[in-house]
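User: Before I run my own analysis I want an independent prediction to cross-check against. Here's the chain; please return only the structure tokens and, at the end, one sentence I can use as a sanity check.
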Amino acid sequence: MNWLLPGFLVGGALVGLPVILHFLRRKPKTLVRFPSLRFLGETAIRDTRKHRLRRWLTLALRCLIIALLAAAFARPFWVAADAAHRRVMIVAVDNSMSMQAGDRWADRKQWALRQLGELQEGDQAGVLLMNPTPTWLVPISNDLAHGRDAVQQSQPGFEKTSYSAALRFAGEMLALNPAGEKVLVWMADEQWLGWRDVKIEQALPAGVKIRFAEAAPEPKRQAAITAAHIEMDGEKQSLAINVRLYRPEKEERKLTVSDGDRVLETRVIKLSAGENKIIIPLPADVPASSAGFRISMEADELPADDTAWVSRAEMSAHPVWLDQTAEVDFLKHALQSTRRLNAGAMEPSALPPSDWPQGGVAILRDASSFQTDRAARLEKFLRAGGGAWIFVDGTKAQADWLSTHGVQIKARILPIVDEEPMHLRDWDPEHPVLGGFRDESLLPLMQVEFYRGFDLKGDNLVPVARWPDGGIALAEISVGSGRIFLAGMPLDRKATNWPALPSFVPFVHQTVRWLGSVAAKEADWRVGDTIPLAGEGTWRVLDSPVQAVERRVSGSVRAEAPGLYEFLAGEKKTFFAVNIPTEESDLRPWQNMDQLLALESKEHATQSRAAVAPPIRLSNEAAEARQRLWSWLLALCAAGMLAELALANRTTM
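Assistant: Structure tokens:
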């Protein structure tokens, strides 16, 4: 037994008061002879003894009442009685962009607050943000008000929905808690995108219960601007805009193109279900200093994807360097084909003999590019934010250099001459190098034949395309502030027929643009991407639905909201357009909600799992408030007073 206010126990000393009063009431005995008492007999003697016993019982009850009253005011509690009976609840908050649709956010917030309202003093609660990675808004604690305030004040963002990591993290945290009841409150809209990567057959830890709100219905009116970029036709510029209509089957929308506060074009567009491409010519009088353009449609149930931004390309040549090759230089011819463009042409030249300036792209195919002197220049160039395209040929110098950056290569050669050639598959359609194919089919890329190639292996590789057996063929890797695009094949006619195919030239153009300085302005950046920057400078918002203060950044910056941004490094300005993840606009709910009930384990929780972490004990105040032992003591005190009153009346008769 413990006491919250032990000072009141001193009041127990007042039990001496009724004892003192009891003895003060006793009068000296005086013997008076009264002859008639002899006729009372044994009955009178027995009544006197009963009267004396009642007085002693009355005295004991009075002392007990005072002791119980002092104990009640001292607020007793049991330390060991809290953990097995309390509850712990984690609210997992889906802060993805889809939660902005209609009333989804408001409805699910109120539902989550009702779940938290079930908790009592002494229970525990935590609030977890799901995206982009599980992050505590409020760690598990006894402060229930803090948890409710966090849910009340939270807002949805622009991230892509992902449930898997948050589901497993919250389950593990609940499993480690010693509480008797463990509940995961799933504050989400149950979008299909979030559940598609979750292994539903893998249940949560034993003892963890999960609560779902009703799945949000699919909106009746939903369209999204999925892509936008500038197209060149000689000196004329146009905006190519992709709009995807989800519901209804056909609809008309008003589309507006703006340059800052100036409206350049307003038109009504007719949309059909699926992808719709709209071309809007840009006026010739758009100033060269313009940062970019905002494209917006009239809002539907999800306004966040009804606006997109395009940064204004810096229409000037940028350096592209090629090492020497003994073969026909297909890359050089592909790059020189941009000469017909009046702006943004790429003129390849030989690698500089000294340090390579920033802002260029180095294309490396020969083993000499990885010898001691050039390897040092390449390393310095990449660390400063440069971009390189490396074609793997299996030479020792190249393999050794790649291994220092965590990349291993393994040759793959067709065992039989007449065997079917290899083809690339599993292309990542969202990668910027496929920007030139975004409105077309990827079939031409999957028809390219390869007779020789290399498997790329490494923990830091980001696959772009794979070989038929799943080995990585094309990949991206970061080195310092720079980027490398790795091609797991040499570029000669003995290894592939790609240079002779129509898909080769646009792929080369887009890859070089992505690696170079122009790519930094024209790349199709999405919320959640890490944008590489050339050096240190100031990052600020030019146009966005979310206001943010400018900040100093170095090397890279993570895009957290859509909009048009400026990066100022010294006197040089670079503009970036960031748009929402395209998949997030598909608001279909998970079709089989009953399937999600399998996430609850049918096994009973074991004590061994909770023993991994030390038990979290309630505070004294929380334990005492939960047990309320003082109310029982007061009840006993009231019963004692009634008994004392009855006995006291009998003793005075």
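Sanity check: The chain has 15 helices and 26 strands.
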